[in-house]
Specification:
The chain is an alpha/beta fold. The chain is built from 16 helices and 14 strands. Strands 3-4-14-9-10-13 form a six-stranded mixed β-sheet, with helices on both faces. A four-stranded parallel β-sheet has the order 7-6-5-8, with helices on both faces. The termini are far apart. The protein binds pyridoxal-5'-phosphate (PLP). The site of pyridoxal-5'-phosphate has 18 residues, from helix 11 and helix 15. Pyridoxal-5'-phosphate binds next to helix 11 and helix 15.
Length: 410
Protein backbone atom coordinates (compact mmCIF):
# COMPACT_ATOMS: atom_id res chain seq x y z
CA UNK A 1 0.00 0.00 0.00
CA UNK A 2 1.33 3.44 -0.94
CA UNK A 3 0.95 6.67 1.00
CA UNK A 4 1.26 10.31 -0.02
CA UNK A 5 4.99 10.17 0.69
CA UNK A 6 5.42 7.77 -2.23
CA UNK A 7 3.90 10.35 -4.60
CA UNK A 8 6.69 12.96 -4.74
CA UNK A 9 7.45 13.36 -8.49
CA UNK A 10 4.54 11.05 -9.34
CA UNK A 11 3.15 13.32 -12.08
CA UNK A 12 6.53 13.31 -13.87
CA UNK A 13 7.04 9.55 -13.57
CA UNK A 14 3.51 8.26 -14.28
CA UNK A 15 2.61 7.09 -16.82
CA UNK A 16 5.91 5.54 -18.00
CA UNK A 17 7.07 5.97 -21.61
CA UNK A 18 4.74 3.17 -22.72
CA UNK A 19 1.79 4.97 -21.22
CA UNK A 20 1.48 2.57 -18.29
CA UNK A 21 0.26 3.39 -14.81
CA UNK A 22 1.60 0.21 -13.23
CA UNK A 23 -0.16 -2.57 -15.15
CA UNK A 24 -2.90 -0.28 -16.52
CA UNK A 25 -3.15 1.97 -19.57
CA UNK A 26 -0.96 1.34 -22.61
CA UNK A 27 -1.84 1.76 -26.26
CA UNK A 28 -3.96 -0.88 -28.06
CA UNK A 29 -4.42 0.45 -31.59
CA UNK A 30 -5.13 -0.78 -35.11
CA UNK A 31 -1.69 -0.76 -36.84
CA UNK A 32 -2.77 2.00 -39.25
CA UNK A 33 -3.21 4.43 -36.36
CA UNK A 34 0.11 3.78 -34.61
CA UNK A 35 2.00 6.52 -36.57
CA UNK A 36 -0.79 9.04 -35.90
CA UNK A 37 -0.63 8.45 -32.15
CA UNK A 38 3.18 8.54 -32.27
CA UNK A 39 2.93 11.99 -33.87
CA UNK A 40 0.55 13.21 -31.14
CA UNK A 41 2.77 11.81 -28.37
CA UNK A 42 5.90 13.48 -29.74
CA UNK A 43 4.18 16.80 -30.36
CA UNK A 44 2.80 16.80 -26.83
CA UNK A 45 6.19 15.95 -25.30
CA UNK A 46 7.81 18.88 -27.13
CA UNK A 47 5.06 21.37 -26.61
CA UNK A 48 4.28 20.68 -22.98
CA UNK A 49 7.81 21.86 -22.13
CA UNK A 50 7.71 24.97 -24.32
CA UNK A 51 7.34 28.32 -22.56
CA UNK A 52 5.27 29.65 -25.47
CA UNK A 53 2.67 26.84 -25.18
CA UNK A 54 2.49 27.12 -21.40
CA UNK A 55 2.08 30.91 -21.51
CA UNK A 56 -0.55 30.78 -24.23
CA UNK A 57 -2.58 28.20 -22.29
CA UNK A 58 -2.23 30.30 -19.14
CA UNK A 59 -3.56 33.38 -20.97
CA UNK A 60 -6.50 31.42 -22.47
CA UNK A 61 -7.45 30.06 -19.06
CA UNK A 62 -7.47 33.52 -17.53
CA UNK A 63 -9.01 35.61 -20.30
CA UNK A 64 -11.31 33.17 -22.10
CA UNK A 65 -12.27 30.54 -19.52
CA UNK A 66 -12.40 32.86 -16.50
CA UNK A 67 -9.92 30.92 -14.38
CA UNK A 68 -9.11 30.58 -11.59
CA UNK A 69 -12.54 29.34 -10.57
CA UNK A 70 -13.23 30.01 -6.86
CA UNK A 71 -13.21 27.70 -3.87
CA UNK A 72 -16.40 28.21 -1.84
CA UNK A 73 -17.25 27.34 1.77
CA UNK A 74 -20.76 25.80 2.10
CA UNK A 75 -21.58 27.21 5.54
CA UNK A 76 -25.34 26.55 5.52
CA UNK A 77 -25.05 23.02 4.13
CA UNK A 78 -22.25 22.12 6.59
CA UNK A 79 -24.29 23.33 9.56
CA UNK A 80 -26.90 20.62 8.85
CA UNK A 81 -24.46 17.85 9.67
CA UNK A 82 -22.43 19.16 12.63
CA UNK A 83 -18.93 20.57 12.72
CA UNK A 84 -17.39 19.08 9.56
CA UNK A 85 -17.01 21.76 6.87
CA UNK A 86 -17.80 21.21 3.18
CA UNK A 87 -16.03 23.26 0.48
CA UNK A 88 -16.54 23.29 -3.29
CA UNK A 89 -14.09 23.87 -6.15
CA UNK A 90 -16.40 25.72 -8.54
CA UNK A 91 -15.72 24.19 -11.96
CA UNK A 92 -19.38 24.95 -12.71
CA UNK A 93 -18.16 28.55 -13.13
CA UNK A 94 -15.60 27.61 -15.79
CA UNK A 95 -16.69 28.86 -19.28
CA UNK A 96 -19.33 26.51 -20.79
CA UNK A 97 -20.24 25.41 -17.26
CA UNK A 98 -18.02 22.40 -16.60
CA UNK A 99 -14.43 21.19 -16.29
CA UNK A 100 -14.37 19.62 -19.78
CA UNK A 101 -13.24 22.86 -21.44
CA UNK A 102 -9.94 22.62 -19.50
CA UNK A 103 -8.69 19.73 -21.63
CA UNK A 104 -10.52 20.74 -24.81
CA UNK A 105 -8.64 24.07 -24.90
CA UNK A 106 -5.38 22.18 -24.33
CA UNK A 107 -6.19 19.71 -27.12
CA UNK A 108 -7.22 22.58 -29.43
CA UNK A 109 -3.97 24.43 -28.76
CA UNK A 110 -2.03 21.24 -29.46
CA UNK A 111 -3.92 20.77 -32.76
CA UNK A 112 -3.07 24.34 -33.74
CA UNK A 113 0.63 23.88 -32.94
CA UNK A 114 0.68 20.64 -34.95
CA UNK A 115 -0.73 22.51 -37.96
CA UNK A 116 -3.95 20.46 -38.02
CA UNK A 117 -7.06 21.89 -39.67
CA UNK A 118 -9.69 19.79 -37.98
CA UNK A 119 -10.56 18.22 -34.64
CA UNK A 120 -12.66 15.03 -34.49
CA UNK A 121 -14.50 13.47 -31.57
CA UNK A 122 -17.55 11.50 -30.52
CA UNK A 123 -20.01 12.61 -27.89
CA UNK A 124 -22.67 10.82 -25.84
CA UNK A 125 -24.74 13.35 -23.89
CA UNK A 126 -23.17 16.16 -25.91
CA UNK A 127 -21.13 17.81 -23.14
CA UNK A 128 -17.78 16.88 -24.67
CA UNK A 129 -19.06 17.88 -28.12
CA UNK A 130 -20.06 21.34 -26.90
CA UNK A 131 -16.74 21.93 -25.12
CA UNK A 132 -14.78 20.79 -28.17
CA UNK A 133 -16.91 22.86 -30.57
CA UNK A 134 -16.15 25.86 -28.33
CA UNK A 135 -12.40 25.18 -28.57
CA UNK A 136 -12.69 24.74 -32.37
CA UNK A 137 -14.43 28.10 -32.73
CA UNK A 138 -11.79 29.78 -30.56
CA UNK A 139 -8.87 28.35 -32.57
CA UNK A 140 -10.55 28.58 -36.00
CA UNK A 141 -10.47 24.80 -36.56
CA UNK A 142 -13.04 22.64 -38.30
CA UNK A 143 -14.86 20.29 -35.95
CA UNK A 144 -16.57 16.94 -36.69
CA UNK A 145 -18.61 15.50 -33.84
CA UNK A 146 -19.95 11.96 -34.24
CA UNK A 147 -23.11 11.33 -32.27
CA UNK A 148 -25.56 8.41 -32.16
CA UNK A 149 -29.01 9.16 -33.61
CA UNK A 150 -30.65 8.14 -30.34
CA UNK A 151 -28.50 10.62 -28.41
CA UNK A 152 -29.16 13.34 -31.00
CA UNK A 153 -32.89 13.01 -30.33
CA UNK A 154 -32.39 12.98 -26.53
CA UNK A 155 -29.88 15.82 -26.28
CA UNK A 156 -31.46 18.38 -28.56
CA UNK A 157 -30.15 21.56 -26.80
CA UNK A 158 -26.55 20.37 -26.97
CA UNK A 159 -26.92 19.49 -30.67
CA UNK A 160 -28.12 23.06 -31.30
CA UNK A 161 -25.24 24.49 -29.26
CA UNK A 162 -22.66 22.51 -31.27
CA UNK A 163 -24.17 23.66 -34.57
CA UNK A 164 -24.33 27.31 -33.44
CA UNK A 165 -20.66 27.05 -32.55
CA UNK A 166 -19.95 25.92 -36.11
CA UNK A 167 -19.38 22.17 -35.62
CA UNK A 168 -20.58 19.44 -38.00
CA UNK A 169 -22.71 16.99 -36.03
CA UNK A 170 -22.51 13.66 -37.87
CA UNK A 171 -25.35 11.23 -37.01
CA UNK A 172 -24.34 7.61 -36.42
CA UNK A 173 -27.11 5.31 -37.61
CA UNK A 174 -25.87 1.74 -37.04
CA UNK A 175 -26.19 -0.62 -34.06
CA UNK A 176 -27.76 0.86 -30.93
CA UNK A 177 -27.04 4.37 -32.31
CA UNK A 178 -25.45 5.58 -29.05
CA UNK A 179 -21.98 6.31 -27.66
CA UNK A 180 -20.25 3.02 -28.45
CA UNK A 181 -21.13 3.25 -32.17
CA UNK A 182 -20.17 6.94 -32.15
CA UNK A 183 -16.69 6.03 -30.83
CA UNK A 184 -16.22 3.51 -33.66
CA UNK A 185 -17.44 5.99 -36.28
CA UNK A 186 -15.18 8.77 -34.96
CA UNK A 187 -12.16 6.43 -35.15
CA UNK A 188 -13.08 5.51 -38.75
CA UNK A 189 -13.41 9.19 -39.63
CA UNK A 190 -10.04 9.90 -38.03
CA UNK A 191 -8.38 7.00 -39.88
CA UNK A 192 -9.30 8.66 -43.20
CA UNK A 193 -8.04 12.11 -42.26
CA UNK A 194 -5.30 11.78 -39.68
CA UNK A 195 -2.82 13.83 -41.70
CA UNK A 196 -5.01 16.94 -41.41
CA UNK A 197 -6.99 16.14 -38.28
CA UNK A 198 -6.51 15.22 -34.64
CA UNK A 199 -8.77 13.04 -32.54
CA UNK A 200 -9.74 14.56 -29.18
CA UNK A 201 -10.83 12.31 -26.36
CA UNK A 202 -13.32 13.51 -23.76
CA UNK A 203 -11.83 12.04 -20.59
CA UNK A 204 -8.72 10.38 -19.14
CA UNK A 205 -9.41 7.28 -21.25
CA UNK A 206 -8.33 5.87 -24.62
CA UNK A 207 -4.86 4.91 -25.85
CA UNK A 208 -1.69 6.64 -24.58
CA UNK A 209 -1.02 9.62 -24.59
CA UNK A 210 -4.63 10.70 -23.91
CA UNK A 211 -4.97 9.60 -20.27
CA UNK A 212 -1.74 11.50 -19.52
CA UNK A 213 -2.52 14.60 -21.61
CA UNK A 214 -6.05 15.03 -20.32
CA UNK A 215 -4.84 14.54 -16.72
CA UNK A 216 -2.11 17.15 -17.24
CA UNK A 217 -4.57 19.66 -18.74
CA UNK A 218 -7.04 19.08 -15.90
CA UNK A 219 -4.38 19.28 -13.17
CA UNK A 220 -4.89 23.05 -13.06
CA UNK A 221 -8.07 22.31 -11.05
CA UNK A 222 -6.19 20.52 -8.26
CA UNK A 223 -3.28 22.96 -8.13
CA UNK A 224 -5.57 25.99 -7.97
CA UNK A 225 -7.79 24.32 -5.37
CA UNK A 226 -4.88 23.44 -3.09
CA UNK A 227 -3.45 26.98 -3.11
CA UNK A 228 -6.89 28.56 -2.67
CA UNK A 229 -7.86 26.24 0.17
CA UNK A 230 -4.62 26.85 2.05
CA UNK A 231 -4.99 30.58 1.57
CA UNK A 232 -8.57 30.52 2.90
CA UNK A 233 -8.07 28.26 5.91
CA UNK A 234 -4.33 28.17 6.62
CA UNK A 235 -4.19 24.39 6.17
CA UNK A 236 -4.85 21.54 3.75
CA UNK A 237 -8.29 19.90 3.62
CA UNK A 238 -8.59 16.58 5.46
CA UNK A 239 -10.24 15.00 2.43
CA UNK A 240 -11.02 15.73 -1.24
CA UNK A 241 -13.56 13.99 -3.44
CA UNK A 242 -14.76 14.00 -7.05
CA UNK A 243 -17.17 12.00 -9.20
CA UNK A 244 -15.69 9.45 -11.60
CA UNK A 245 -17.15 8.71 -15.04
CA UNK A 246 -14.11 8.31 -17.29
CA UNK A 247 -12.31 10.13 -14.51
CA UNK A 248 -11.04 13.46 -15.89
CA UNK A 249 -12.38 15.90 -13.30
CA UNK A 250 -11.26 13.53 -10.55
CA UNK A 251 -7.78 13.07 -12.07
CA UNK A 252 -7.35 16.85 -12.26
CA UNK A 253 -8.43 17.41 -8.67
CA UNK A 254 -6.37 14.51 -7.32
CA UNK A 255 -3.22 15.71 -9.12
CA UNK A 256 -3.01 18.59 -6.64
CA UNK A 257 -3.25 16.35 -3.57
CA UNK A 258 -1.64 12.95 -4.26
CA UNK A 259 1.66 14.00 -2.63
CA UNK A 260 -0.04 15.73 0.30
CA UNK A 261 -1.33 14.26 3.59
CA UNK A 262 -4.96 14.33 2.40
CA UNK A 263 -7.49 11.45 2.11
CA UNK A 264 -8.77 11.13 -1.45
CA UNK A 265 -12.11 9.68 -2.57
CA UNK A 266 -13.39 8.93 -6.08
CA UNK A 267 -17.16 8.49 -6.37
CA UNK A 268 -18.67 6.04 -8.87
CA UNK A 269 -22.36 5.96 -9.88
CA UNK A 270 -24.37 3.12 -8.30
CA UNK A 271 -27.48 4.06 -10.30
CA UNK A 272 -30.45 1.87 -9.29
CA UNK A 273 -28.35 -0.80 -7.58
CA UNK A 274 -25.66 -3.43 -8.04
CA UNK A 275 -27.36 -5.54 -10.76
CA UNK A 276 -25.97 -5.74 -14.30
CA UNK A 277 -27.19 -2.77 -16.31
CA UNK A 278 -28.30 -0.85 -13.22
CA UNK A 279 -25.08 1.07 -12.53
CA UNK A 280 -21.76 2.20 -14.03
CA UNK A 281 -19.41 1.49 -11.11
CA UNK A 282 -16.51 0.04 -13.10
CA UNK A 283 -14.11 -0.32 -10.20
CA UNK A 284 -16.62 -1.65 -7.69
CA UNK A 285 -17.93 -4.37 -10.05
CA UNK A 286 -15.58 -4.54 -13.06
CA UNK A 287 -12.72 -6.84 -13.97
CA UNK A 288 -9.40 -6.19 -15.71
CA UNK A 289 -9.73 -5.85 -19.45
CA UNK A 290 -9.08 -3.79 -22.58
CA UNK A 291 -11.63 -1.35 -24.00
CA UNK A 292 -11.26 1.55 -26.47
CA UNK A 293 -7.49 1.06 -26.69
CA UNK A 294 -6.44 0.92 -23.01
CA UNK A 295 -6.29 -1.54 -20.13
CA UNK A 296 -8.25 -0.89 -16.96
CA UNK A 297 -11.22 -2.11 -14.95
CA UNK A 298 -14.10 -2.79 -17.34
CA UNK A 299 -17.72 -3.82 -16.83
CA UNK A 300 -17.64 -6.75 -19.26
CA UNK A 301 -19.02 -10.23 -19.84
CA UNK A 302 -16.91 -13.44 -20.06
CA UNK A 303 -16.15 -12.72 -23.71
CA UNK A 304 -14.85 -9.23 -22.95
CA UNK A 305 -17.87 -7.48 -24.48
CA UNK A 306 -18.80 -4.34 -22.52
CA UNK A 307 -21.94 -4.74 -20.37
CA UNK A 308 -24.84 -2.29 -20.49
CA UNK A 309 -24.43 0.57 -18.01
CA UNK A 310 -26.79 3.07 -16.44
CA UNK A 311 -26.66 6.19 -14.29
CA UNK A 312 -29.10 9.05 -13.84
CA UNK A 313 -26.09 11.22 -14.78
CA UNK A 314 -25.43 10.58 -18.46
CA UNK A 315 -21.84 11.87 -18.10
CA UNK A 316 -21.04 9.01 -15.72
CA UNK A 317 -22.40 6.02 -17.64
CA UNK A 318 -19.21 4.60 -19.14
CA UNK A 319 -18.37 0.87 -18.79
CA UNK A 320 -14.71 1.47 -17.86
CA UNK A 321 -12.56 3.97 -16.01
CA UNK A 322 -9.34 5.83 -16.81
CA UNK A 323 -6.26 3.62 -16.21
CA UNK A 324 -4.75 6.03 -13.69
CA UNK A 325 -7.72 5.48 -11.36
CA UNK A 326 -7.30 1.70 -11.63
CA UNK A 327 -3.69 2.19 -10.54
CA UNK A 328 -4.51 4.64 -7.73
CA UNK A 329 -7.04 2.23 -6.32
CA UNK A 330 -4.86 -0.88 -6.49
CA UNK A 331 -1.91 0.87 -4.82
CA UNK A 332 -4.19 2.12 -2.04
CA UNK A 333 -3.66 5.88 -2.46
CA UNK A 334 -7.27 6.69 -3.44
CA UNK A 335 -10.46 5.08 -2.13
CA UNK A 336 -13.39 4.62 -4.49
CA UNK A 337 -16.93 4.62 -3.14
CA UNK A 338 -20.37 4.48 -4.76
CA UNK A 339 -23.38 6.81 -4.59
CA UNK A 340 -26.86 5.87 -5.88
CA UNK A 341 -29.22 7.92 -8.07
CA UNK A 342 -31.39 8.71 -5.05
CA UNK A 343 -28.50 9.91 -2.88
CA UNK A 344 -27.22 12.06 -5.76
CA UNK A 345 -30.65 13.63 -6.26
CA UNK A 346 -30.99 14.37 -2.56
CA UNK A 347 -27.62 16.17 -2.67
CA UNK A 348 -28.69 17.99 -5.85
CA UNK A 349 -31.70 19.51 -4.08
CA UNK A 350 -29.79 20.24 -0.86
CA UNK A 351 -27.20 22.22 -2.77
CA UNK A 352 -29.98 24.14 -4.53
CA UNK A 353 -31.88 24.98 -1.35
CA UNK A 354 -29.05 25.59 1.11
CA UNK A 355 -26.41 27.19 -1.10
CA UNK A 356 -28.12 28.60 -4.19
CA UNK A 357 -26.14 26.37 -6.55
CA UNK A 358 -27.80 24.04 -9.10
CA UNK A 359 -25.16 21.35 -9.71
CA UNK A 360 -24.80 18.92 -12.62
CA UNK A 361 -26.22 15.55 -11.56
CA UNK A 362 -22.73 14.10 -12.16
CA UNK A 363 -21.25 16.54 -9.63
CA UNK A 364 -24.13 15.90 -7.19
CA UNK A 365 -22.65 12.39 -6.72
CA UNK A 366 -19.54 13.96 -5.18
CA UNK A 367 -21.64 16.34 -3.06
CA UNK A 368 -23.64 13.34 -1.78
CA UNK A 369 -20.42 11.68 -0.68
CA UNK A 370 -19.32 14.88 1.11
CA UNK A 371 -22.66 14.90 2.97
CA UNK A 372 -22.12 11.25 3.97
CA UNK A 373 -18.59 12.12 5.11
CA UNK A 374 -19.79 15.13 7.12
CA UNK A 375 -22.36 12.95 8.93
CA UNK A 376 -19.68 10.40 9.85
CA UNK A 377 -16.91 12.88 10.84
CA UNK A 378 -17.73 15.41 13.49
CA UNK A 379 -14.83 17.70 12.64
CA UNK A 380 -12.47 18.46 9.78
CA UNK A 381 -12.92 19.58 6.18
CA UNK A 382 -13.79 18.00 2.84
CA UNK A 383 -13.24 19.71 -0.53
CA UNK A 384 -15.52 18.61 -3.39
CA UNK A 385 -14.80 19.12 -7.08
CA UNK A 386 -18.10 20.55 -8.33
CA UNK A 387 -17.41 19.50 -11.92
CA UNK A 388 -20.33 21.31 -13.61
CA UNK A 389 -23.54 23.28 -13.38
CA UNK A 390 -26.98 21.73 -13.65
CA UNK A 391 -28.79 23.93 -16.17
CA UNK A 392 -28.55 21.08 -18.69
CA UNK A 393 -30.39 18.79 -16.24
CA UNK A 394 -33.31 20.86 -14.96
CA UNK A 395 -36.00 19.77 -17.45
CA UNK A 396 -35.27 16.11 -16.81
CA UNK A 397 -35.05 16.57 -13.03
CA UNK A 398 -38.29 18.55 -12.90
CA UNK A 399 -40.14 15.88 -14.88
CA UNK A 400 -38.92 13.12 -12.56
CA UNK A 401 -38.65 14.81 -9.15
CA UNK A 402 -40.55 18.09 -9.41
CA UNK A 403 -38.90 20.76 -7.30
CA UNK A 404 -37.67 18.24 -4.75
CA UNK A 405 -40.11 18.82 -1.85
CA UNK A 406 -40.06 15.11 -0.98
CA UNK A 407 -36.37 15.33 -0.01
CA UNK A 408 -37.09 17.88 2.73
CA UNK A 409 -40.14 16.24 4.37
CA UNK A 410 -38.25 13.42 6.06
C1 LIG B 1 -18.63 14.64 -18.44
C2 LIG B 1 -18.84 15.08 -17.07
C3 LIG B 1 -18.40 14.31 -15.97
C4 LIG B 1 -17.77 12.96 -16.11
O1 LIG B 1 -16.54 12.94 -16.77
P1 LIG B 1 -15.16 12.69 -16.02
O2 LIG B 1 -14.21 12.47 -17.13
O3 LIG B 1 -15.31 11.51 -15.12
O4 LIG B 1 -14.86 13.92 -15.24
C5 LIG B 1 -18.59 14.82 -14.68
N1 LIG B 1 -19.20 16.00 -14.48
C6 LIG B 1 -19.64 16.78 -15.50
C7 LIG B 1 -20.30 18.06 -15.19
C8 LIG B 1 -19.48 16.34 -16.83
O5 LIG B 1 -19.92 17.10 -17.83
Amino acid sequence: MKTYQDFTNYLKNYPDENGRFGEFGGQYLPPELVPAFEEITQAYQEISHSAQFINELRRIRKEFQGRPTPVYHCERLSRLFGACQIYLKREDLNHTGAHKLNHCMGEGLLAKHMGKKKIIAETGAGQHGVALATAAAYFGLECDIYMGEVDIAKQHPNVIRMKMLGANVIPVTHGLKTLKEAVDAAFEGYLKEYKDAIYCIGSVVGPHPFPMMVRDFQAVVGFEARDQFVEMTGELPDAVCACVGGGSNAAGMFAGFLDQPVDIYGIEPLGRGSGIGDHAASMAYGTKGVLHGFESYVLQDEKGEPLPVYSIASGLDYPAVGPEHAYLRDCGRVRYETVSDEEAMEAFFYLCRYEGIIPAIESAHAVAYAMRYAKAHHHGTILVNLSGRGDKDIDYVYEKYGTGEQFFQK
